[in-house]
Amino acid sequence: MAVRLNHTIVAARDNDIAAKFLTEILGLPAPSLLGPFAVVQVSDDTSLDYHDADGEITSQHYAFLVDESEFDVIFARIRDRRLTYWADPGRNKPDQINTWDGGRGVYFNDPNGHLLEIITRPYGSGGSTASLVHPLFAEGRSSR
Predict the structure, then answer these.
(1) pLDDT at residue number 125
(2) What ranges do the domains of the chain cover?
(3) pLDDT for res 127
(4) 86 by DSSP, 3-state: which?
(5) What's the confidence (pLDDT) of residue 123?
(6) ∠ CA 48-23-90 to the nearest 5 degrees?
(7) pLDDT tens across 84-93, in order?
(8) How far apart are CA 108 and CA 88, in angstroms?
(9) pTM
(10) pLDDT of residue 138
């Protein structure tokens, strides 16, 4: 049996603003409204369902796999909006992208403080021969 993620609920101060931000940055169709949710269809069978939350919002991380040309377009939108971006999830390398696993990746915040990421290669897909192995996999190799 194949198991696939169908949807997840994303907390937002304003679900409409948050959903529109994501669709505009990623170049996706406009969100649809379904009851209290602003639904962003990120693939044929997966959606992020934004829901207004009261109180503090705990930051979550969402990574999107894109191809090289999509990365260029999305990264241009990030820079055009003058969004702060980082090469790493710890936000220690500002104004840089990473080239882990032979691909490219960048992290940036959405309006609610969720850490969004676009990558052109899945984590670990470069194997141990990539010129710059993803740090999680590099640490695993050095601790053996």
Answers:
(1) 83
(2) 1-52, 59-144
(3) 67
(4) strand
(5) 85
(6) 70
(7) 999 999 999 9
(8) 10
(9) 0.90
(10) 66
Q: Single out the residue of 22, 42, 45 nearest to residue 115, CA to CA.
A: 22
- DSSP code at position 94: B
Residue ranges of the chain with per-residue pLDDT less than 70? 127-130, 138-144
- Name 41's bridge partners: 47
- Out of 3.30.720.120, 3.10.310.50, 1.20.120.1810, 3.40.80.10, the CATH code matching 1-52 is 3.30.720.120
- Provide the token pair at 111: 């309006």
Bridge partners of residue 107, in order along the sequence: 86, 117
| DSSP result, 21-51 | HHHHHHTPPPPEEETTEEEEEEETTEEEEEE
Distance CA 21, CA 41 (A): 13
CATH 3.30.720.110 fits 59-144, yes or no: yes
Radius of gyration of the chain (CA): 16
